[in-house]
Inverse folding.
């Protein structure tokens, strides 16, 4: 017979993971339902957010599973692939039943196409929204595909506001919260949890020559083509180089549009991204809409100010006139670009303000805030 050992005499192996016990008020088993894993070549800010949340919750003692489409990578939390990039939307329900089984909280990450989890999962659910795609559907599906854009837009709006008659939604910025309320989601059901940022470590050298950097997935709504047109107006004034970091379906077309002194790097390592953001004089962000604009904060911790358009998400991560400039049009963007490029003193002041502002956003704080909302979502479903 097994011998009973008093708890006071039990010894934990030194290499065993030391997780603090999960308080009863918090859900122990949490499943994220998302489009991609962070290891997917098409991953971006949304995937980074989910990874930081899943990893942070795991470190706090929760059992976390990510159910996604496409390849599944090995992580400290469990990652399960439900199928391909698009068919996994149809297979998510069966994959959840067969390979996950049950959970205390299902977090549906809504990035355009919905999973409609509240219709088939009867336990507590939480919806995590980076940004509402209202104006992006026509950009993604134009011309003969316009009917698909209309269907996608209506489906997304119904999934966020119509199918979710109860439960909480997490927005990553006030802009996203405002967009959700505009769809008809009551404000009392919306919680805001900002993105965080890593402490980047020692800075590397700033470029002695003008260097301007844009970072992001090369897709339509990022509007890198607009940035290339503006570069033709700015380059004669500032000189220097424009470096485009990232990859995507638009890359070939954009490389054909690019003029002199433009470099496309494709995907880069975190170390190389750190070097480029430290070296850059300015971060340029011409996107039409964002949930938050994570790279703005990543540049800010390296004392690099940003120029962006005054659009949802970016108006939350850029403090206009302090940590960067929010342009109201193409001419305004080009003028700010030239002005800051020619004023080292103003760039330094904005860079320092950006660093101080970014100090408010750290991933551990993001995880704690999300964990509190997760507990609230579970409590709201209890009798």
């Amino acid at each position: 017979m097994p011998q009973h050992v008093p708890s006071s005499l039990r010894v934990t192996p030194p290499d065993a993971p030391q997780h603090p016990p999960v308080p009863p008020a918090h859900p122990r088993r949490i499943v994220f339902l998302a489009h991609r894993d962070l290891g997917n070549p098409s991953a971006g800010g949304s995937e980074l957010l989910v990874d930081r949340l899943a990893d942070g919750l795991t470190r706090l003692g929760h059992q976390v599973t990510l159910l996604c489409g496409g390849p599944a990578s090995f992580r400290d939390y469990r990652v399960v692939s439900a199928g391909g990039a698009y068919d996994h939307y149809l297979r998510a329900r069966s994959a959840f039943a067969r390979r996950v089984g049950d959970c205390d909280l299902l977090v549906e990450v809504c990035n355009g196409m919905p999973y409609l989890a509240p219709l088939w999962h009867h336990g507590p659910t939480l919806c995590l929204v980076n940004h509402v795609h209202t104006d992006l559907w026509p950009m993604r599906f134009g011309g003969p595909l316009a009917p698909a854009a209309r269907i996608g837009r209506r489906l997304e709006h119904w999934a966020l506001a119509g199918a979710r008659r109860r439960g909480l939604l997490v927005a990553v910025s006030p802009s996203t919260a405002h967009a959700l309320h505009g769809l008809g989601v009551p404000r009392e059901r919306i919680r805001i949890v900002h993105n965080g940022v890593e402490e980047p470590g020692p800075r590397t050298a700033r470029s002695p020559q003008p260097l301007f950097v844009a970072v992001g997935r090369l897709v339509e709504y990022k509007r890198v083509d607009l940035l290339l047109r503006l570069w033709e107006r700015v380059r004669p004034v500032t000189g220097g180089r424009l470096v485009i970091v990232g990859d995507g379906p638009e890359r070939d077309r954009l490389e054909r549009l690019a003029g002199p002194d433009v470099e496309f790097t494709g995907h880069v390592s975190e170390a190389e991204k750190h070097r480029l953001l430290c070296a850059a004089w300015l971060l340029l962000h011409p996107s039409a809409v964002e949930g938050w604009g994570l790279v703005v904060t990543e540049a800010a911790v390296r004392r690099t100010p940003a120029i962006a358009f005054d659009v949802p998400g970016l108006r939350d991560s850029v403090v206009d006139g302090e940590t960067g400039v929010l342009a109201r049009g193409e001419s305004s963007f080009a003028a700010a670009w030239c002005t800051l490029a020619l004023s080292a003193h103003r760039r330094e002041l904005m860079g320092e303000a950006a660093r101080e502002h970014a100090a408010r956003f750290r991933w551990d704080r993001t995880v704690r805030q999300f964990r509190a909302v997760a507990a609230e979502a579970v409590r709201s479903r209890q009798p």
Remarks:
- Residues 146-162 form the longest helix (17 residues).
